[in-house]
Amino acid sequence: MIQKKYESAAKAVADMKDGATLLVGGFGGSGLPSHLVSALTERGANDLTVVSNNIGAVSDGVAALISNNQVRKIICSFPVGPHAHELIQRIEEGRIELEIVPQGTLAERIRAGGAGVPAFYTPTAAHTELGEGKETRIFNERLHLLEHAIKGDYAFIKAQRADRWGNLVYNKTQRNFNPVMATAARITIAEVDEIVEVGEIDPETIVTPSVYVHRLVKLKAQSEGRVLVNE
């Protein structure tokens, strides 16, 4: 049975523990669950492994977690940006491990995690530094790398609209890494602009079904934020 709880973003992330693996949606600032990230900086969970396309700005992206010394490892495609110097400094000091993954491979590793596929072969990054040390195999006379699926303890995602069960609709480019990350985490938390009753969303527009969404936080009035928990 679905139990509805009405809580803030802070309470939605309150049970995150040190050492967790966190998937953070978004492509640049588009579809970035910045309120959840901000709540986590206040929560203070440390030693995190963070998976995201890019590190973002220090105020609202993964960079905020880096500045707050909460990150042990980052898996991303685009680690550069206006605050990349903080990441570089921490890497040089041995405080953060960085794994750079080609963008398409990153998306597919997360998708595979959600689909229950443990690993797959891809020609992307073969014969480059990113492919060094990885298992290889030749298919159709072309070298392929073995890439392993990514799964998270938590996923922070952003959507435009949800019903109270957690079916999600995205606004245009919000539909980037968010849908695949929703499927690949043990607990998926979505921040949304609007929550409506079940049946008010056209089923044909639903991208992420409620079975993948465990908690909802409404943004426009945090005092009315809703958290949905699947029991």
UniProtKB/TrEMBL annotation:
UniProt-recorded Gene Ontology molecular function terms: CoA-transferase activity
Family matches, as InterPro entries: 3-oxoacid_CoA-transf_A, CoA_trans_fam_I, CoA_transf_BS, NagB/RpiA_transferase-like
Family matches, as SMART domains: CoA_trans (SM00882)
Residue stretches in coiled coil: none
Alphabetized UniProt keyword annotations: Transferase
UniProt cross-references to Pfam families, sorted A to Z: CoA_trans (PF01144)
Annotated Gene3D superfamilies: Glutaconate Coenzyme A-transferase
PROSITE patterns per the UniProt record, alphabetical: COA_TRANSF_1
Protein family according to the UniProt entry: Belongs to the 3-oxoacid CoA-transferase subunit A family.
Name of the protein in its database record: 3-oxoadipate CoA-transferase
Native source organism of the sequence: Peribacillus muralis
